[in-house]
Amino acid sequence: MAGSALDRVETDKPYEALAVTGKAEASAGSPIIELAQLTKTFDSSGQKVVAIEGVDLAVRPGEFVTLVGPSGCGKSTLFNIVSGLLDADTGGKIHFKGEERQGKELLGTVSFMPQRDLLLPWRRVIDNAVIALEVEGMRRKEAREKAQVMFQEFGLAGFERHYPHQLSGGMRQRVALMRTFLFERDLMLLDEPFGALDALTRVMMQRWLLGIWQRHRRSILFITHDVDEAIFLGDRVVVMTARPGRIKLSREIDLPRPRDPHVTTTPEFLAIKADLMEAIEEESMKSFMSQDERG
Amino acid sequence: MARAGYLALGIFIIGCLWEAAIAIFALPPFILPPLASIGGAIWSEFPFLMRGLRATLTVAGAGYAVGAVAAILLALSMVLVPTIERVVKPVIVAINSVPVVAYAPLCLVWFGMGPASKIAMVILAAGFTVFVNALQGLQSVDAAGVNLLRSFGAGPFRIAWMLRLPAALPAIITGLRVAVVRSMIIAIVAEMLGAYEGLGRIIYESTQQIEFLTLWAAIIVASTASMIAYGILVVIDRRLVWWK
């Protein structure tokens, strides 16, 4: 089922359609969000755990930033802070479109997509997609009309009135992405959206996401474990250190867009990958060793 | 449909064992009357039994409805305002750590011999059953789902309406189903302890007057009514919680 839906997307939207490059606009304008010296300490039964420490990060309008790091490096903590679900320690600053915001003030300002699809089993696909619009107070009929036009683009045409359990994993993930897109905010946070998918579906979804992004021009901050994915998607790859999570390295990816999947086998791509792998492996080793010490 | 078949088979087997026991052990009618004579008693006293059933169902139904609504509202308020849970929940648990029947004498003193005292006891019993299930269901909602709605800017009321209530529906309906039977039991027991009418009253009086056929007839009517009510809730469950 997933396969056929994806085929449809690709025949509808040929690759030439993606010819707009993200670069020109990405570098223009002041950052949409700017994090300065963000630190978060958790207090678990008297023991202080520093999840992230002194994180500085800025995302420019229209930019696609991918975030990689060893597991447990506080990537999800960072996302929870940026989306307003969690308060950072005092001292750090978040500027959203130039205005300083903190904690709960950020709720509802960025569109956030967690790792799991979190579709509500009792709502039809279309009603899951419009849930953020409903929260904003839009009438359901109007919200559905707004969502309806996106089904073709998201490869879900014909599945509007299905229930989530009738969909494959890839399709569910696309419904979740559509829900995120329909919550129209200039910054999207995607937390390993393709982590649970098989390798083939994941590659299809990556290409498809790039297409959607280039047409909708939103800024994206994207968490992943997968270095190939990070390079293939990103204008910039940011590597985080092992706990406590810090920004170790930020590297512009100057591979031309639109990116063909074959780009992953070019020498330029492999050179970038070698650089990043070195940094990441160093960090993975650290977190591995520190687990060893603890054990 | 298959379920109805098994139910009929079960009733048939019990009926056979019943008649066999009477035949083998030569049981006198006041120990175990033949099924035919119980059927005869139901037939001849049908209007009388139905008046009793109506009184019992009124008490059980009113108490059940009020108790269930109050329980769901209370559980919801506890989810929205955690302080309410900390203050009120221990009180509710304390009240219900004693069998509801223990409150029967007090209820009779407070609310009299009429239906009000029985309704109060059913409210307590049915309400507690629904409350425990509803609270558990409302609280065991996936935190990630709550966070997702919060990130869209939803407040606690909207989260309760869009996520918590539907997610808790299976647990709430389980509570409602169990509470149906409890309501009937409590209504009948309460009537036995002091009432002007109802199946419980008929059971109590016919025992006093050694009218064993009427006693059995009342028991069978009560049991049948309970099972029908339970069956209705099972159907509602399947209609409302189709996604499980």
Automatic annotation (TrEMBL), chain A:
EC number: 3.6.3.-
A molecular function GO annotation: ATP binding
Source organism superkingdom: Bacteria
4Fe-4S as UniProt keyword: no
Presence of keyword ATP-binding: yes
Residues in coiled coil: none
Domain ABC transporter: from-to ranges: 33-267
Keywords of the record: ATP-binding, Hydrolase, Nucleotide-binding, Transport
Transmembrane segments: none
Pfam families: ABC_tran
InterPro entries, per the entry: AAA+_ATPase (IPR003593), ABC_transporter-like_ATP-bd (IPR003439), ABC_transporter_ATP-bind (IPR050166), P-loop_NTPase (IPR027417)
Family from the record: Belongs to the ABC transporter superfamily.
Protein name per its UniProtKB record: Aliphatic sulfonates import ATP-binding protein SsuB
Species the sequence originates in: Oceanibacterium hippocampi
UniProtKB/TrEMBL annotation, chain B:
Topological relation to the membrane, as annotated: Multi-pass membrane protein
InterPro entries registered for this protein in UniProt: MetI-like, MetI-like_sf
GO biological process: transmembrane transport
Domain ABC transmembrane type-1: 53-237
GO CC terms, sorted: plasma membrane
Localization of this protein: Cell membrane
Keywords: Cell membrane, Membrane, Transmembrane, Transmembrane helix, Transport
Transmembrane regions: 7-25, 31-50, 62-84, 90-112, 119-139, 159-178, 185-204, 216-236
Pfam families linked: BPD_transp_1 (PF00528)
Major location category of this protein: membrane
Record-linked Gene3D superfamilies: MetI-like
Origin superkingdom: Bacteria
Family assignment from sequence similarity: Belongs to the binding-protein-dependent transport system permease family.
Protein name: Putative aliphatic sulfonates transport permease protein SsuC
Organism per entry: Oceanibacterium hippocampi
